[in-house]
Design a protein that fits this description.
Elements: H1 2-18, H2 20-40, H3 44-76, H4 79-85, H5 90-119, H6 128-150, H7 156-173, H8 185-191, H9 195-209, H10 217-242
Length: 244
């Protein structure tokens, strides 16, 4: 079973590596967006305060987009149908694609963090390795979300339309632009069921207050639970999605 998962993951990674344009975009696009963020915030203290939330948003956005489009391309090329016809379980397929897409999503995560933190000299107080681990957790969530949502899209245009439906509301409600506590009660309730809210809370606590992963264990557990549930749901919806 685990061998099937690794085989699928290796094939996904090999295919993406051979696509030089995709690799270039994986590297260049985060650098462009991070540069825009760094130069558009004039006050250094404001940048120190807002960057953690921006990092969480960008990690979720890029991971979701990369995974969703790539997974959809696998379906449109008929690869998914061939896998579904082989003696491979749906759990193997979803886990294999998760492992296959994850290194590229994590690469974008590290590019965004190190570029913004060191090129723009952003101050942070938590342990570097723990901050990176937490960002990796957000990246895993983004990959799981992208795989799950892509099963509902029939083409790339539809997949892109899920961005204002799935990602943009979380950007407005996660605390990036204003504190969740300042929102109306019904929006606070909505914000508290969105995973990005916990990503922003956790990374802010680490970078601004110096908290450890143990200190923000609730955020870690909630993000991990979201990722697990999304992968389970993706496994159940995979057959319907692959035949759409």
């Amino acid at each position: 079973m685990f061998g099937n998962t690794l085989t699928i993951a290796q094939r996904v990674m090999t295919q993406l590596i051979r696509d030089r344009r995709t690799i270039a975009l994986i590297v260049i696009v985060p650098l462009v967006i991070a540069s825009l963020v760094g130069v558009s915030v004039p006050d250094k203290r404001m940048l120190d305060h807002t960057l953690p939330a921006i990092l969480a948003v960008l990690v979720l956005f890029f991971g979701f987009l990369l995974t969703g489009i790539s997974f959809l391309r696998e379906r449109s090329q008929g690869t998914m149908e061939r896998l579904m016809a082989s003696p491979v379980s749906r759990a193997d397929i979803t886990a294999g694609y998760l492992l296959g897409f994850l290194p590229f999503a994590l690469a974008q995560t590290l590019i965004i963090f190190f570029y913004t933190a060191y090129v723009f000299d952003v101050n942070f107080y938590g342990d570097l390795w723990q901050i990176i681990v937490f960002q990796i957790i957000i990246g895993i969530l983004a990959v799981c979300l992208g795989i799950f949502i892509s099963t509902f899209a029939k083409n790339e245009f539809q997949m892109v339309q899920f961005i204002p439906l799935i990602i943009v509301p979380q950007m407005f409600l996660c605390g990036l632009l204003w504190d969740v506590a300042d929102m109306p009660n019904y929006l606070q309730w909505l914000a508290n069921i969105l995973p990005l809210t916990y990503g922003v809370d956790g990374i802010r606590a680490m970078m601004l207050n110096g908290d450890s992963l143990l200190d923000i264990w609730k955020d870690v557990v909630i993000l991990a639970a979201y990722a697990i549930v999304l992968m389970i749901l993706a496994s159940f919806t995979l057959r319907r999605g692959s035949s759409a």
